[in-house]
Write a structure and sequence with these properties.
Blueprint lengths: L20 H6 L11 H6 L18 H36 L13 H11 L5 H13 L7 H15 L8 H8 L6 H15 L9 H18 L8 H17 L2 H17 L5 H12 L6 H25 L13
């Protein structure tokens, strides 16, 4: 038995020549027979071979162009992410600055220290302004939250509660939240917001009921002092709506229904069901420059939130409706 010769050419898996176009298209092995390969002969297709074939792979310089475009896109994405991060940090700083001032709840301080603090806080404030701050301190005694906790509850409210109760404009809230001498109803609305926010956090649930009680006390005192003159603040209706939701979630439905009735009556007294009609007539008389569209939108959303709560309670307990569809005027 003789050994194979070293000079014998290696065997090839395919014959000489190029595969036909049909076999390339169908990704079949071509036997390269001429004038017609076996596949084309069986299928009855004209066996054609392209003498000049384009080079495989991308064109020269194409990969470099793609890499350059990828680098440009990556730089843009990094820039957008950095810009978004700066905006978020700016908002957080705004939120934090709203609560970095010393707390307005000074009932636990001696009278002399409290009055000195108010004078330092508002050096140019008049006597009536200082009296207002004193009233606020007495009204909000018993609830003293650190600034970081207040900022955390604000963020928790807008992340969890605002999703299904979008009745507050965040930027406007952050503006008046910075005021050290806010009105009682603004503080009441804050407490209602924070109380409802604690329902979505196990970390702050222990302060939820105290905030709720403080909010109800301010609301009831403001109603007792109401002489029926002047306008009704939107913060009062918003606070009653948030209190209603808190009571349905944390206390009992009977108390929630009673609070809902107060919210509905305030909405009716403010004639929020005519908000679109009133805004249109105001535009016709004064133009768009003098309209506070954010305030109008807050009132509109407050009405529709009360409308939805009315429908929910009526469906749940089979109670009669308070806000009828017929009174809503487009």
């Amino acid at each position: 038995m003789t050994a194979p010769s070293d000079s014998a050419p290696p065997s090839s898996r395919s014959g000489p020549g190029s595969a036909c176009d049909e076999c390339r298209r169908r990704k079949l092995r071509c036997d390269r027979k001429r004038p017609q390969c076996g596949v084309c002969q069986e299928t009855g297709v004209v066996c054609h071979i392209e003498p000049i074939r384009p080079p495989r792979g991308p064109k020269k310089g194409h990969l470099k162009t793609l890499q350059t475009r990828i680098d440009v896109l990556e730089h843009r994405l990094v820039g957008q992410q950095f810009s978004r991060t700066q905006d978020e940090q700016r908002i957080l700083l705004d939120d934090a600055s709203a609560f970095t001032q010393p707390p307005v709840y000074l009932a636990h301080l001696p009278d002399a220290d409290a009055s000195l603090y108010v004078e330092q806080l508002e050096p140019s404030a008049s006597a009536s302004d200082r009296d207002t701050c004193d009233t606020l301190r007495r009204s909000c005694s018993g609830v003293d939250l650190p600034g970081l906790v207040r900022a955390e509850l604000d963020q928790l409210y807008f992340e969890r509660v605002h999703l299904f109760t979008p009745i507050l404009h965040r930027r406007r809230y952050l503006l008046w939240a910075k005021d050290a001498c806010k009105s009682r109803l603004c503080i009441c609305l804050q407490h209602a917001m924070w109380a409802l926010a604690t329902s979505f956090s196990a970390q702050f649930q222990h302060v939820g009921h105290a905030l709720y009680r403080s909010c109800r006390e301010i609301l009831e005192e403001s109603e007792a002092e109401d002489e029926g003159a002047g306008t009704i603040e939107i913060e009062r209706a918003q606070a009653w709506i948030l209190v209603t939701i808190y009571e349905f979630m944390q206390t009992n439905s009977r108390r929630g229904w009673t609070s809902a009735g107060r919210a509905f009556r305030l909405v009716q007294l403010m004639r929020l069901y005519e908000i679109d009609k009133c805004s249109d007539s105001f535009v016709e008389q004064n133009g768009c420059a003098r309209i506070d569209w954010v305030e109008i939108e807050e009132k509109r959303r407050t009405f529709w939130m009360a409308y939805c709560i009315d429908r929910f309670i009526s469906l749940r307990n089979e109670y009669p409706l308070t806000l009828q569809e017929q009174v809503v005027r487009p």
